[in-house]
Design goal:
4% of the residues lie in helices and 53% in strands. With 259 residues, it is mainly β. It has a single domain, classed as Jelly Rolls (Sandwich). The longest helix is centred in the first third of the chain and has 11 residues. It is globular. The N and C termini lie far apart (44 Å).
Length: 259
C-alpha cells in the first residue's frame, strides 16, 4: 500500500522525466481560501467551527480571565468571563478556513502575510469597564517563549470616560502588559460609534514598509505608512486588544480577504 507521503513524493518528483535524465518537479495544484464572511445570523450558542481563537496574556494579574465570543440574538457577542479583574491581552478569532499550508513549499500560504483587510459592523455595547475592541490584520497570538510570537495591526474602538469615544490604529507585539512588548498607537480619531457603523482596516506591503488604512462607513479616517513594520505574517481577525473588568460588545457582518 502506498502511503500518502509516498504518493506526494511520486506526484512531485517521479511522474515525469526530463529528456536526458533528471526528475521534473511538477507543482501540486494549490487553491487556498483567501476570503471569508460571517453574518453571525444563527442560533444562540457557540460561535461555531468556522473560527479558531488565540490568546496572549501577561499573567501579571491573579486568577484567570478570558474573552469569549458567542452568538446571541443573531449578533456576535464578545465578553469577559472568569476573573474579570485579571488583565486580558490580545484575544483574537481567526477564520479557520483561511489557515492552510502550501504543499509545494511546506509553508503557510493563502492570505498569510500578504496584502489583506478585515471589516466588521458595530451594533451595541453592554457593560464596559476598560477595553479596546475591534478588528486586526497581520495578526497572530502564538503562545511561545518570545514576545514576538504575538503581533497585529488593530483598528479598535477605545472606551474612554464612560463611553466608546475614540478609534485607534494600534501596532502590537506581545501582550499589552508583557515585558518587552510593543504597543504603539499609530493613529487616532475622536469618533463615537453608533449602531450600524462599518469599520475596515487594510494593510498593503510597499517595499520594506506597510501602508495601513482605516475606514468608517467607507470614508478614510486614518492612514499611516509604517517604516519599521511588523513581519509579513498573520491573518485577519476580530477580538479584544486589551480588556479588564466587566465588558460586552455586539457586532455583525465580519468579512476579510486579500486586497
Amino acid at each position: 500500500m502506498v502511503t500518502s507521503a509516498e504518493e506526494l513524493y511520486y506526484r512531485r518528483y517521479l511522474n515525469d522525466i526530463i529528456p536526458g535524465g533528471g526528475p521534473q518537479v511538477v507543482p501540486i495544484a494549490y487553491q487556498p481560501v483567501t476570503s471569508f464572511s460571517d453574518t453571525f445570523t444563527r442560533a444562540n450558542g457557540d460561535i461555531g467551527d468556522n473560527w479558531i481563537s488565540q490568546f496572549r496574556r501577561s499573567d501579571i494579574s491573579p486568577g484567570d480571565g478570558w474573552a469569549r465570543a458567542v452568538i446571541n440574538a443573531n449578533l456576535l457577542l464578545i465578553q469577559n468571563v472568569g476573573n474579570i479583574n485579571a488583565t486580558l491581552n490580545n484575544g483574537i478569532w481567526i477564520p479557520r478556513q483561511l489557515i492552510s499550508t502550501n504543499p509545494n513549499t511546506g509553508l503557510q500560504g493563502g492570505i498569510w502575510g500578504v496584502d489583506q483587510y478585515a471589516q466588521i459592523t458595530w451594533k451595541t455595547q453592554g457593560t464596559v469597564t476598560t477595553a479596546r475592541v475591534g478588528i486586526a490584520i497581520f495578526s497572530k497570538n502564538d503562545m511561545g517563549g518570545s514576545v514576538n510570537e504575538a503581533q497585529g495591526y488593530y483598528l479598535v474602538i477605545k472606551y474612554d470616560g464612560g463611553s466608546f469615544t475614540t478609534l485607534q490604529l494600534v501596532e502590537s507585539i506581545g501582550g499589552q502588559n508583557e515585558n518587552g512588548n510593543t504597543f504603539n498607537v499609530l493613529g487616532t480619531l475622536v469618533s463615537a460609534p453608533v449602531d450600524g457603523d462599518i469599520f475596515r482596516i487594510e494593510g498593503k506591503i510597499s517595499g520594506n514598509n506597510k501602508i495601513l488604512t482605516c475606514f468608517k462607513n467607507g470614508s478614510q479616517i486614518i492612514q499611516v505608512t509604517d517604516t519599521t513594520p511588523l513581519p509579513s505574517k498573520g491573518y485577519p481577525s476580530f477580538g479584544l486588544l486589551s480588556s479588564s473588568g466587566s465588558n460586552s460588545y455586539n457586532f455583525i457582518n465580519f468579512s476579510c480577504g486579500i486586497l
